Amino acid sequence: MRNLPLGSFRASRAIRTIGVIDGPNMSQLGKRNAKKYGTIGRDDFNAQLREWADGLGAELVLLVSNHDGEILEFIHANADVVDGWIVNPAGWQIYAEPVRHALEMTGKPNAETHFANTVTHFAHAQPHVRVESGLTGTALSLTMGLRQYSYLTSLIGLLNVIDAQQEPASA
Ligand SMILES: O=C1C[C@@](O)(C(=O)O)C[C@@H](O)[C@@H]1O
Q1: Is 37 a residue of the active site?
Q2: Residues 50-65: pLDDT tens digits?
Q3: What is the pLDDT of residue 126?
Q4: Among the atoms of ligand 1, which is closest to the Cα of residue 25?
Q5: What pLDDT score was predicted for residue 8?
Q6: Which residue's C-alpha comes closest to atom 9 of ligand 1?
Q7: What is the spatial distance between Cα 113 and Cα 133, in angstroms, rounded to a whole number?
Q8: Which of its termini does the chain have fewer beta carbons within 10 Å around, N or C?
Q9: Which residue's CA is the closest to the ligand 1 atom numbered 1?
Q10: What is the predicted pLDDT for the residue at 1?
C-alpha cells in the first residue's frame, strides 16, 4: 500500500471521528463476487480504510457486523463519539428502517456507501422489481460502484461537509 498525500483534499486540520459500519456479508470481502467487490480481503480493506483516514486527519470507529441488533447498539453507543457516519447496509438496505432511525437520531450526517453499483445489481438480479435502499432518503449522500474507492470518495466528501458545518467560512 502507498502512503497517499491525501491532506490536500481537505483544508481543515481538525481531527474528526467517523463511524464506519459494514453490514451483513461484508466480513467476507475477498471471497465475494470479484466482478462486484474486487479482490481486496477484509483485513487489507480495514488497513486501507485506516490509512486513508489517517491521511485525511480522521479517526475511525469501525464495525463489521452480520447482526442488526449489534449495528443498532453500535450506533447508539457512538452517537456522541462520531462527527459523521459511513454506512454500507449491504443486504439490509432493503429493510433498513431501524438503522435509518438510529442514524437519524444521532443528528450526524451519514454517507451511504456501496462497493457495487446496486442499481445494476438489482436490475440484473430482479429485472421486474425496482429496489431502492431504505437508507438513501435521509442519507447525506450515496456513493456506489467504485469498489473500495467508494469509501474513499465518501470519506473525503463527508469530512469536507462536516468541516464546512463546524467551521463556517467567515463572511
Ligand atoms: O451485500 C451487499 C453489498 C453492497 O452493499 C455493496 O457494498 O456493494 C451491495 C448490496 O446490494 C449487497 O447486498
Answers
A1: yes
A2: 999 999 999 999 999 9
A3: 61
A4: 1
A5: 92
A6: 90
A7: 11
A8: C
A9: 90
A10: 45
Is 166 in contact with 14 (CB distance < 8 Å)? yes
For helices 149-166 and 42-56, the axis angle rounded to 10 degrees is 30
The DSSP-derived string for 84-124 is: EEEEE-GGGGGG-HHHHHHHHHHT--EEEE-SS-HHHHHHH
The mean pLDDT value of the chain amounts to: 91
pLDDT at 101: 96
Catalytic residue among 67, 95, 101, 114: 114
**pTM metric for this prediction:** 0.93
Whether the CB of 21 sits within 6 Å of ligand 1: no
In one-letter notation, the amino acid at residue 131 is V
Question: Which of 25, 71, 93 is the pocket-test mutation for ligand 1 (most atoms within 8 Å of CB)?
Answer: 93
Residue whose C-alpha is closest to residue 29's, from 88, 70, 106, 99: 88
121 lines ligand 1 (CB under 6 A): yes
Residue with cell 442519507: 139
